[in-house]
Amino acid sequence: MLSLRIVTAVIAIPLFLAAGYFGGIYLKILTGALAIIGYLELSKMFLKRNIKLFAPLAVFLLVLAYIDILPKQLLPYLFFSATGIYFVIKHRDHELLEFIYTFFSIFYTYSFIYIYEIRNTNAGFGLFLYYFLLIWANDTFAYFIGKGFGKHKIAPNLSPKKSVEGAMGGLLGALLVGYIGKLWLPEYYLALLPGALLTAVVAQIGDFLESSLKRFAGVKDSGELLPGHGGVLDRFDGVLLSAPLFYYYFIFFYH
Question: Which of 33, 46, 144, 237 has its CA 20 to 30 A from that of 222?
Answer without folding.
Answer: 144
